[in-house]
Amino acid sequence: MPVLLNRPHAARRAARYFVEQFSGRSLYAVKANPSPALLKLLYSEGITHFDVASIEEVRLVRNILPAAVLCFMHPIKSEAVISEAYHEHGVRVFSLDSMDELEKIERATGHAEDLTLCVRLKVASEFSQISLASKFGIDVDESTELLMRTRQTAEIMGICFHVGSQAMTPLAYVHALERVRTAIVEASVTVDIVDVGGGFPSIYPDMSPPSLNHYFSAIHRTFEDLPISYSAELWCEPGRALAAEYNSLIVKVEQRRGNELYINDGAYGTLFDAAHIGWRFPVQLIGSGSDPATTEYSFYGPTCDDMDHMAGPFILPENVKTGDYIEIGMLGAYGSAMRTKFNGYGSIDDYDVSDEPMASVYVGDNLDRTDRENVVSFPRV
């Protein structure tokens, strides 16, 4: 069976970086990787707030970390789920993007007076590798009434957004924060929290984003210029950036047919993103005697489904053969979280290791890679 390698030191390093360098509060987006070991590790390094997007995640984190602050940031929830989260698990932070959701929260919590409510704005995902612009968020032009009503209900009110996954420039956040500015001005409301969401990038083949400190600087400077209270808090919700370097995967080549490698994990397992959205992960052949010449490969997973295909291309030595082992890196975000038991597969062993991940935004030159955009403000129009 495939083997998952855990790198606790890499996740600790990522957590410390956000806690020390981001000038606000960092919430871990649990959906990226809900591993109990990872949740405990992040909490021990100062990530005390968690972005939970389902009642199952609420129950999981509350059971593992009784003192953690849970923030239910899915904008559409059932009244039963809201009620359980509030009354049984102590959740006080909720997001919403419609009047209907606000009314559900009011009813389900018994019109509670201790709520922190974050209105989600719709913003563009044009600078990100995976868009999150179409499903949630209220248009800024339509947000005034909702912001005013939410302000009446909430003890603490915030505005949140999500620029998409793997944002490749700080400009994504600057643009979004300017949308926040417009919404605040038009609604004339006092905002206590600005939550810039997730989207902070990791390194993958053909994806070398600017260093995270440039993102943090651009966000902080734009936030400081918003028409908000001096005591307003800045939040973010990293998922990929905290979890990506935590895992890699060892797979076995069961057969080679030309440049197609049949391996023992795939689209219904840890490699969901590689198959369904064409994500290219770094790879390396394990063992000595590799041919220095390389070629492009695609992978087929172990199930009987033609969709169990990872097109890549994945660059490996030309002499890969049946029985070889390949390490696939940067799978800590969404990899193990997406595994299924389809076709009887899905079992996996895991081990903690101490070597470095195949790529890292937290070491060496990557700590301060030149930001070609280096945008720290955006002209008002």
Q: Summarize the main sheet.
A: 8 strands, mixed
Q: Round the mean pLDDT to the nearest integer and report it.
A: 93
CATH class of the largest domain: Alpha Beta
Shape: globular
Tally the beta strands.
Answer: 18
- Please indicate the percent range of residues in DSSP E strands (runs of 2 or more): 15-25%
Q: Architecture of the largest domain in CATH?
A: Alpha-Beta Barrel
CATH T-level fold name of the largest domain:
TIM Barrel
Q: How would you classify the helix and strand content by structural class?
A: alpha/beta
Corresponding CATH superfamily of the largest domain: Alanine racemase
Number of alpha- plus pi-helical segments: 10
Total domain count? 2
Short structural description:
By secondary structure, this protein is of the alpha/beta class. Helices cover 27% and strands 23% of the residues. The protein has 2 domains: 8-242, Alpha-Beta Barrel (TIM Barrel); 245-352, Beta Barrel (Lyase, Ornithine Decarboxylase, Chain A, domain 1), CATH 2.40.37.
Please provide a written account of the structure.
The chain is of the alpha/beta class and about 375 residues long. It folds into 2 domains: about 10-240, TIM Barrel, CATH 3.20.20.10; about 245-350, Lyase, Ornithine Decarboxylase, Chain A, domain 1 (Beta Barrel), CATH 2.40.37.10. Helix content is about 25%, strand content about 25%. It is built from 10 helices and 18 strands. Strands 1, 12, 13, 14, 15, 16, 17 and 18 form an 8-stranded mixed beta sheet that branches. It has an 8-stranded parallel beta barrel with strand order 2-3-4-5-6-8-10-11. It has a two-stranded antiparallel ribbon with strand order 7-9. Helix 4 links the parallel strand 4 (about 70) and strand 5. Helix 3 runs parallel beside helix 4 (about 80-90) and helix 7 (about 170-185) packs parallel to helix 8 (about 210-225). It is globular, with a radius of gyration of 22 Å. The model is unreliable at about 370-380 (pLDDT under 50).
